[in-house]
Amino acid sequence: MIEHHHLLERIVRFALEEDLGSGDITTNTIVDSVTMGKAYLLAREKLVLAGLPVFKKVFSLIDPRIELEECFEEGEQVPKGSRICVLTGPLNSILQGERTAINFLQRMSGIATLTRQCVERVRSLGVRVLDTRKTAPGLRLLDKYAVRMGGGLNHRFGLFDGILIKDNHITAAGSITRAVELATKGGPHSLRIEVEVEDLAGAKEAMQAGADTIMLDNMDLRQMRKVVQFLKGRVMIEASGGINLETILDVAGTGVDFVSVGALTHSATAADLSLEILPVL
């Protein structure tokens, strides 16, 4: 669960320090610290909700007196115009956390929404949608969590938990065969070895070298079908490179097992959200 991850509080504290600095001058001059009130978070468009634990963490760190009532669950589809949650507590504190909390939630819900669209588009083909390491620096924990909330799968979290031999590794090693040989000898035995290839010859060499998964990088559909026809049933096959919502169905239709989409985290549009303070009586 993201709530218990050791990085979460560090990420949120840094974001609050960045925004608040020495204090919210505007709010502190207009709203006293004892006035209580309510606010609700409004979905201004249809979205897949992701990031409520982070949203809550922002307000709990600012003021533990703030209470949050959830109207939707993580990963749930939220209709346009719906109230996502209701906040109750000191208005001064709610206003101080508003922008930081929404920034997290709108980014994460945007990623989850795009991921859900991609997953639904290829569901009938049984192809699984993966993310990449093309995440916002410092926010990978949140970006990849949002992908899961959208129904996608996480590829590697970082360089430390998977072996993916890319073109530059192959160049450095001298060949695909040599790169796989070195990774097999030097890497943890529990990790599968994936190799990025650009053509059929590379795919054949990677398979013969013992790769567990072969990534077809930036191939056109004709080339991809040809390589899939040769590899199918022998190794797991992943397609990658410039894939988006418009092209993912055609790519999945070639017969690959996975499609990795960098756009999930580097190009998702932030969800349109707003926090509305209810009038103080």
Q: What does this protein structure show overall?
A:
With 281 residues, the chain is α/β, with parallel strands linked by helices. Helix content is 43%, strand content 19%. The protein is built from eleven helices and twelve strands. The chain has helices at residues 6-20, 25-30, 52-62, 91-122, 140-149, 167-173, 176-186, 200-209, 221-231, 248-252, 263-266; strands spanning 36-43, 47-48, 67-70, 77-78, 83-90, 128-130, 163-165, 193-197, 213-217, 236-240, 258-260, 273-277. It has a six-stranded parallel sheet with strand order 6-11-10-9-8-7. A four-stranded antiparallel sheet has the order 3-5-1-12, with helices on one face. It has a two-stranded antiparallel ribbon with strand order 2-4. The model has no long low-confidence stretch (mean pLDDT 97).
